[in-house]
Amino acid sequence: MLSINKINAYYGKLKVLHDLNLSVQQGERIGIFGHNGAGKTSLLKCCVGELETQSGQIDWAGQRVVAHAVHLNTRMGIGFVPQGNNVFKDLSVKQNLHIAGLMHDPGFVTEIYQVFPILRDRQNQMAGTLSGGQQQMLGLGMAMMRKPHLLLLDEPTTGLAPIIVKDVLNAVRRISDEQGMTLMMVEQNVQATLAYVDRAIVLKSGRIIFDDTSLRLRQEESLWHLF
Ligand SMILES: Nc1ncnc2c1ncn2[C@@H]1O[C@H](COP(=O)(O)OP(=O)(O)OP(=O)(O)O)[C@@H](O)[C@H]1O
Ligand SMILES: [Mg+2]
After folding, report:
1. Parent domain of 205
2. How does pLDDT run across 151-191, given as a tens digit for each residue?
3. Which residues have C-beta under 5 Å from ligand 2, the single-atom ion?
4. What's the 3-state SS for the chain?
5. Alpha carbon nearest to ligand 1 atom 11, residue
């Protein structure tokens, strides 16, 4: 279980998260939505220890997330895929996936190729010469090769063609299901994402103003202006 307990976070003097509480059960899939600047990325960064919390705590599976120790938090099974630039551009697709899977099961690459067939087709191409969307799929594939127990995704479908968006969300859902992953996914494609998550959270100015089932958010038209 992920337990976020009254956290406050700042960039310098700018307070971006205010007394934020959140509990996420193992295997739960959560969509995080909200305006630009609402604090969505900051929340993910706190969960992996990239952004320090000034007060409050975050625990994953009973262990404390340590600020500025992303490598340690990663070893607890927390995976973070930031927006863009997640691949080694001078290595081939195959090499990128292989490196990502070294600590776990390099054979899992066949699963990744199944969900992203384009990566199989381009396995010998330098990652830096893939299109933006293809690099995004590779970054996602690499994260999954690490078999995280808690996967934090920051806008995984941004920049992807609309017909690919569903494929990627389907792939994320399928692999998270198979692996029993807990998923927190920030998304701008709210309507598309709601079909793939169980629970929806809306952030406004660093505070959670909605936390309920994705179905409820779909029905709550009065809230749609918030994202
Ligand atoms: N490195 C930084 N230094 C200073 N301020 C920052 C930094 N990163 C983010 N901020 C500020 O913190 C606030 C929250 O930013 P954050 O990136 O968490 O928002 P977001 O909800 O992810 O927005 P978006 O939808 O645009 O990605 C914003 O006001 C932003 O300007
Ligand atoms: Mg963001």
Report:
1. 1-77+183-227
2. 999 999 988 888 888 888 988 998 899 889 999 999 998 99
3. 41
4. CEEEEEEEEEECCEEEEEEEEEEECCCCEEEEECCCCCCHHHHHHHHHCCCCEEEEEEEECCEECCCCCHHHHHHCCEEEECCCCCCCCCCEHHHHHHHHHCCCCHHHHHHHHHHCHHHHHCCCCEHHHCCHHHHHHHHHHHHHHCCCCEEEEECCCCCCCHHHHHHHHHHHHHHHHHHCCEEEEECCCHHHHHCCCCEEEEEECCEEEEEEEHHHHHHCHHHHHHC
5. 37
